[in-house]
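Minutes, methods subgroup
Present: GH (chair), OT, SY

1. OT presented the first of two proteins processed in the latest run. Sequence and structure tokens recorded below as shown on screen.
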Amino acid sequence: MIQEATQSYRAVICQCCRQPIPLPAIVLHIESTLQQGDPESGIDKSARAFSLRCRSCEKEMRYRTSDIVDVEGTPKPRISRANGRKRENLTRAANA
């Protein structure tokens, strides 16, 4: 019997649209340091909260390290804001 390898990643669930938000490397580093309980790491208790912007609804919310979960699958690709908006809807600067 062949077992399929499933991919997973660390994320938080968006408080607005309930979609998973993949964690950036800096938050993963802070989480691993806090789990190890290293007092000499220089990371204080205020690092237990962080802000992330959702890739789906683009709302930014604050999350705690206790909100981090494992999500199966692969993260959604990031959409550039410049490419995501139509250029016709943008207004021109007064000096342009």
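2. SY then presented the second protein from the same run.
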Amino acid sequence: MKSILKFVFLLLGLVCIHAAQADRIKDLASVAAIRSNQLIGYGVVVGLNGTGDGNDFIFTTQSVRQMMLRLGLQADGSMTDAETTALPGKLDLKNAAAVLVTADLPGLAKPGQRIDVNVSALGKASSLRGGSLVMTSLRGVDGQVYAIAQGALNVTGVSASAAGSSVTIGVPTAGRIPNGATVERQVQTPFARSDKVVLNTRSADFSTVSAIVNAINARFGDGIANAIDAMSVAIKAPEDLTQRVTFVAEIENIEVRPSEPPARVIVNARTGTVVISRAVKVAAAAVSHGTISVTVAATNEVSQPNALAQGQTQATQNAEVGVSENKKPMFLFQPGIDLRQIVDAVNQVGASPSALIAILEALKTSGSLRAELIII
């Protein structure tokens, strides 16, 4: 545990050292007009090896029948289309499954480009492995079709069952189709029409936004960039589209020294991972962490009477209860103690990550921790 803690804090120290160096604006912010858009669609996966929805899931049955009718086919040649559609259970759909298809449409994506799609089962399918997605329309929030998806699924999860036992590795009911959709419609953006280009930083920080504005104005002149708030910067851009692209490219490569992030302590209570930023300080405090252990040992014995005692054999149970308390020294934190001193104090007594979490929570409750404590 001690080596794990040292590795986490060493890695964090390297990140903090890098944060103090200059970064390109393109690594700190992105153009507001170039944003991704979420797409969604409903489709059917076929070609499964008996792991599909079957006839119990009504949406799969309806979807396959409607698809067959559009292709000019009928489930039974002696029936009309209306009778075939209304007839339940005529098709055996163990090899088909209803799925939900999602994708992210990148900003400025053009028709003909390919994007990745994610496919997830909706019904009773136990696995999508080996299946292929039938042509599916992907729509945006406005209801318009922006992409068409189709192709063989790449499923990493595996499930197997035999003789009443089953084993599942990963999630076999979800898969991915790399480059599985073709963009059919472009999302209109204000990049070419607006008189300004807006940059949004990755996280809200007044100091970083101020540094970006100063760096841009130092390169192109005062008044070119203006801060909108703690996250956005408005930049006057040329009207000519070619000049605008060149202008934004130059801005993206300007180096800026961002401010250090606020002091934070992030704790993952499930895994025991603790990440402490370099700016964390602790006020004067004394902390003691220890646990009380209670052990109960039970011994089963049999009482056997003598041969002439005319008694009965009885089973007895003896129990021994012990209580012990681990002796842990107190942590004495001086005012303004920094990250390294906290880690050294915890490591000296051989405390585990769970003990460090308890200490940090106690410091936060007492008001001695000069940082934001985030528990995930």
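Chair's summary of item 2: The CA atoms of residues 44 and 64 lie 8 Å apart.
Next meeting: continue with the remaining queue.
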